[in-house]
Amino acid sequence: MDHKRRVRRRNIKRTEVWGQTHVVAKDLSKYPCALSFYLQPPQEEIGLEEFEELAVARLHALKACETAKVRYPSRGSDFTQLISKAERKHLPVTESGDNDIRYDQRRRDYLSHFILRLAYCRTEDLRRWFLTQETELFRHRLMHQDTQSVNKLLALNNMQFKAVDAGVKQALAPELLAVHSITSNAGISLERMLSTDVFEVPFEQALDLVRSRRALVRNGNVYVTKDNLIPIIVAAFRARLSASLAHTSKALPSLEEDDRLLPMLKSLSQQDISHGFKSKTATAGQVTPADIPTLAKESFPLCMRTTQDALHSTHHLRHGARMQYGLFLKGIGLSLEDALAFWRSEFTKAMSHEKFEKSYAYNIRHNYGKEGKRQNYTPYSCMKIIMGSAPSTGDAHGCPFKHYNEQNLKTKLMAYKVPTATIHEIVQLVRGSHFQLACARYFEVTHEQPSGTATVTHPNQYFEESRKIRTGGQQQQQHRGGADGATTTTTTTTATTKQEVPAELSDEALMAALDDSAMDCT
Amino acid sequence: MSDGDFPQLLQQYYARLFPYTKYFRWLSYGSTDKVFQNREFSFTLKDDVYVRYQSFTDLADLKQAIQAKCPYKIDIGAVYTTKPKDHKKVKASEFYPVQKELVFDIDMTDYDEIRTCCSGAAICHKCWPFMTAALKVLDKALREDFGFQHLLWVYSGRRGIHCWVCDERARMLTQEGRGAVAEYLQLVSGSDQMACKVHVPPSYPAATRAFDILKPYFHSTVLSADGQDLLNHAEQRRALLGVFEDSSMTDDLESRWTGDTRSSEHKWADVEKAAKAAKKRSKLQAITLQHTYPRLDIHVSKGLNHLLKSPFVVHPKTGRVCVPIDPETADSFDPLAVPTIQQLLTEFDDLAEQEQDNKEGAEVGLSSL
Ligand code: SF4
Ligand SMILES: [Zn+2]
């Protein structure tokens, strides 16, 4: 490991060398396949300028993956189109064609991956974002490359899948057919099933399929047809990348001395925006407990508004809701002292002060990083809320669009005076599992915005967008000025449409590039 | 039992009855290396003093510590990279869990909305079969679907059951792997805001198998007058019919039943007829699962470093010992007949015999390891 670290470090040092790009022979055996698991760190020198350009290109592609997932969560053809477009523009890889072109494409792909890996391995949140988007990009490519590339990838990585023999297949046939008809909406005859290859894979390698019950699980294996190997290969990619990221982050401290690279890597990862919402201590105190009821009505997304309602009527919230709501309030600028006062005043309507102090105050201080591991917890994103643990009996957390049944959602929206026609639209979106789009629709109608203009990725982003509209933008300006290196999910109105790659890596340049990509996607 | 007696009783229990040797053998898994030494235990002492990161070098050390501290409760955690008691001596990043049994926790309080006999911590013979049904279904799924063989089922001492899956493959599962298995098994989940909490197509193999196992329990526990008699309780009945998400059908049934004092079994026959007429037969399966399928607290299963109450400790409130349950004879397991610590210790004449029984019970659970 020591050795590896040294090698990687030397590579990075080399990138500082300006304009000394070697002329390398374009040997395609270096990048034998259009698809890659990115296992070996690259061993070549690149100039700072190219370093930045590659980073920005890949950010475009990854950002498109994120946007696509938010807009089209069920991964339909619109989803594919959006990613394809960005990929073609910024980071194309093809399996056929001119040798030199293929070499250049693959090299760009390879290097840019490793550059962003450095930039995004620094914190848990960044790692998670990078891992999610890289996996999405890989899945996209895997599904659109021809079988030959996929086979090459598997052969290169020693991933052989074993097809079961006829006897096993026969024994499992009824259940294989049952699962098949659930997962594909189309029946298949017994004969067809018996003449199709069925692969046996240890369940540990197919956790997504297990979790979502999209395969037959028997005897510690999943049994899948060829199409279903895709999630398994994707899972293998994800597992490897996840391990490498953890490893790189441990190796990163040795970079700290490198005063040139680190700020650049930092600023790279800070520019991307919607993966996390930094709660800014600079704004603590901006909201007081007395403001909350009004703000809840005016500017809270549905998830937080319903939780506030629940708190107000029951004077209690269980752990999941205390975390989700508490961190949201912290994110909108409720100071620790105010948070304690706020929770105390509600909870003590139903319990003694002693009980509150004994059982709940710790939890609140903990959210603010004042207890326990002293971690500065960040508010939950929509993805985390929607994909996170679903509320069970008595819980008030979660996303109403996802976790309420249709009737209850309708009732709630009616109570919040959403017009019937819009409720109907929202219900349609929810039926298609477009929870964040449903939320965006709710935003638009409650803020008198035209349809299709809002995007919701984070409850705190929802809130800030709302305040901007309700207060005519004043408060938002204050926010920005207060925090240095401000990260925010809102699109700046001052975005320039610079197309050329910035020579100097400045915040503004990257910001503009990213805003640009956001516009590309519309 | 008066609280005052408990510490003395406990001391005697730990001195004379706790099955140290078997316990140690179980947690060593036939290995001479650090599996036992790096295992985390936590003790809950008198007055709720909770001490984590206990670990022991061998059987004698374990025995000595338990007898000296006389814990009200012992929890078992994960096996770590180093001895948990020394965790402060290594860097935080180098101290992490590497293996643990895959565990499941089923608690009767999660059944409150479908219980008419008791609520909260209370249990009786009318509601305990919910646990038996849960055990049967989960046991089968873990063995058939995941190929696990070494399952230890334990009465939690009060109102639920635990399952320890001890196969090496289960112990080595990552956090994500545990989550996937737990979610796979969680066919029923959802908040009060959801009428139908069953999220699995009726023809999925695990669902049809569960349905077959659970059908008799649905009749004997949910419908029968010796069980919950659920359709004669307005609130629970409304929730049950809500699964159809068809208000005209349920209104129709409700109005037909006004003043109807027939048994739940009879009313269920009406429901079945109405469902067939409305082409909603699959909802009958959903209702059965929603009312009998194990309600798992999957957070307990997901966490690699999550601790769970150890088998063989004594529940301080009930005084009952957390004894293993044999899945083969689970139907006849009676939690209210589980020996309490007093019974064990005061009925001295029976002691030898009871201890023997108790050990045999343990034998059944542990010999499979
Ligand atoms: S989409 Fe996001 S902001 Fe909207 S309700 Fe759901 S979790 Fe909240
Ligand atoms: Zn009962």
TrEMBL record, chain A:
Sequence ranges assigned to domain DNA primase large subunit C-terminal in this UniProt record: 295-463
Keyword 4Fe-4S attributed: yes
Official protein name in the record: DNA primase large subunit
UniProt remark on cofactor binding: Binds 1 [4Fe-4S] cluster.
Gene Ontology terms, MF aspect: 4 iron, 4 sulfur cluster binding; DNA binding; metal ion binding
Residue span of region Disordered: 467-503
Annotated family: Belongs to the eukaryotic-type primase large subunit family.
Cofactor needs: [4Fe-4S] cluster
UniProt feature, compositional bias: Low complexity: 472-497
Single GO cellular component term: alpha DNA polymerase:primase complex
Keywords: 4Fe-4S, DNA replication, DNA-binding, Iron, Iron-sulfur, Metal-binding, Primosome
GO biological process: DNA replication initiation; DNA replication, synthesis of primer
4Fe-4S in keyword set: yes
From TrEMBL, chain B:
Domain of life the protein comes from: Eukaryota
Endpoints of the signal sequence: none
Gene Ontology terms for molecular function: DNA-directed RNA polymerase activity; metal ion binding
The protein's enzyme class: transferase
Alphabetized Pfam families for the sequence: DNA_primase_S
A biological process term (GO) from this entry: DNA replication, synthesis of primer
TM regions (residue ranges): none
Keyword set, alphabetical order: DNA replication, DNA-directed RNA polymerase, Metal-binding, Nucleotidyltransferase, Primosome, Transcription, Transferase, Zinc
Entry GO terms, CC: alpha DNA polymerase:primase complex
Keyword Cell inner membrane: no
EC number: 2.7.7.-
PANTHER family per UniProt: DNA PRIMASE SMALL SUBUNIT
Stated family: Belongs to the eukaryotic-type primase small subunit family.
Protein name: DNA primase
Species in which this protein is naturally found: Salpingoeca rosetta (strain ATCC 50818 / BSB-021)
Lineage: Eukaryota, Choanoflagellata, Craspedida, Salpingoecidae, Salpingoeca
